[in-house]
Task: structure prediction
Amino acid sequence: MMPDLGKYATEVLSAYGASLALLAVLIWLTLRRGKAARAALQDVEQESGKNG
Amino acid sequence: MSIWSYANPVKFLALSAKVQPVLWVTSISCVVVGLIWGFFFTPDDFRQGSTVKIIYLHVPSALMAINAWFMMLITSLIWLVRRHHVSALAAKAAAPVGLVMTLIALVTGAIWGQPMWGTWWAWDPRLTSFLILFLFYLGYIALWEAVEDPDTAADLTSVLCLVGSVFAVLSRYAVQFWNQGLHQGTSIPVATGERTVSDVFFYPLLVSMIGFGLLFLALVLYRTGTEIRLRRAQALRVRLERAA
Result:
């Protein structure tokens, strides 16, 4: 049930598309960096544990 | 318990872990509900047609673009005065989120402006101050990356944040300062409460604004946790290298 956007359909859809894509990239990069940071900390903690 | 106790990274991470699940669910729910409500279940504006649906993205993102800088200003001041590392890292964590919010506001504004004003861009006071704010975000992030010593980077970026606050203020009040340009004044003045937006557009917009605000908070908490972990890993790595 797509609403009738009339002659401005391109503008409205491109605004939504661009914004949602930017938000998705931001969230993805945030989660990816978070995961990498947890892994890096875990590695170095294990290493320092081994070295006493 | 004092609020300053959360300047302790361990306490900050513990609190952050507790509130984040609720924040993520609530924020994403509000954004989804606000956008679906606004896109599918609101009428066209009698003058702007269906382009009015862009308001549910443009206004919340613009609001958060400015508020993110103010949050960075407060945390930068805390760093400069009290030297709490968590607050400096929170400012660092907020910058990319603010940058994306500014970019969304600029892109949606240009797309909305083209059919309404007949141009993608005008050197209007609000648009120009927003573009400068965007450049300040880029400069702020670049400065963090460019300076190797984290404390020096925090000092320099805090000063940059203070300077950039002028443009954050201008972005919000440019329309009142200069009665010229294409951009209209605020439709939802918080101080007077005399909004010019009809209820049918206002309520989904309100849900979307709450969603964007909470999403910003969730992202900043998560990213601050990431920065704390990276700083801790770096400190341990240096200690190991010295011991070797």
Chain B has a mean pLDDT of 91. The helical segments of chain B are 9-40, 55-82, 85-117, 125-146, 150-177, 199-243.
